[in-house]
Design goal:
By secondary structure, the chain is α/β, with parallel strands linked by helices. Strands 1, 2, 3, 4, 5, 6, 7 and 8 form an 8-stranded mixed β-sheet that branches. β1, α3 and β2 form a beta-alpha-beta unit.
Amino acid sequence: MNFKDHFSDRAALYAEFRPLYPDSLFERVAQLTGSHRIALDCGTGNGQAAIGLAKHFERVVATEPSEEQINRATRHHRIEYRIARAESSGLPGASVDLVTAAQALHWFDAAAFFAEAKRVLVPNGAIAVWGYGDPILDTTALHNTLHAFNRGTLERYWHPERQLLLNGYSAIAFPFEEVKMSPGELEMRWTLPELTGYLRTWSATARYAAENGFDPIVDVEKSLARDWGDPEETRLIRWPLYVRAGKTRA
């Protein structure tokens, strides 16, 4: 399949070291629609959003073009995982109450994805797309070290699509009746090894390693360690959360 596959080779890391979405996000998203029969989660990766949706919907269909990601997805009796692109779910028309895409829209053909969402959504169905930005560490010294790595060492290795995410998807035409949802944050308490595991999931880290022949996380981990203290001590890490939501016409 022709899709932008930046994560299959790091699927194991992705499954272990990605931040979790708060329950409050899924509660807000579930409130967008009165019916909770079926939700379609596109670009599901290892199923992080699908698991959250399964608390609120009778059935979740979770699509992902990467077989490796699907193989490592969290199983749940309400979730059906399918290897499929977001732009072609294979579901019948007017069969889904809610369509979601978490940390994924910037990799899609957005116009084709939105057309597919309109096709599969029931009248007065809903869509919600969200993603999170750069991490914020809990001391100035730690944050400055990570920011210099992210926006210095890795800057030219980030794919241009990431800017769509950092802009909160505001530059993407959104052909739905928009429902305003306040932005929020993700929060995790991680040890230093957990943080560096997360940094190794970044597509820019993978590109850097492929082009330069070594893992750039080794050096930044040493720099972070100087100000972290005990590497097994957990520290608060926050990410800005961007959400766009909308409804189809009844």
